[in-house]
């Protein structure tokens, strides 16, 4: 049994959403489950700029929480275009799961940075 995780590659920063931010996500027109109050940065460890965690997705808009040591805010983004196939709307695990213009390396797995070694 070998479960290889690549957690070491992920930025360890975490953020706790305040009531206003939770209310914002609750008000979005999406059927997705509620956003967790505490989220972890999904960018590469050692990245530049603000930390970022995906909060909610509405159609083609992704709402990311971005934060620094002193402040946090919610911003809309589109998907990072890396490896996005132009002839399909579907996304799969081969597509980068981060926002357009993100710092650091592309993430090839949504939510979990576990490497796909099946290939
Ligand atoms: Zn970070
Ligand atoms: Zn990317």
Automatic annotation (TrEMBL):
What organism, scientifically named, is this protein from? Answer: Paractinoplanes durhamensis
Compositional bias ranges of the Polar residues kind: 105-119
Give the residue ranges for region: Disordered: 92-119
The name under which this protein is listed is Uncharacterized protein
Query: Taxonomically, which superkingdom?
Result: Bacteria
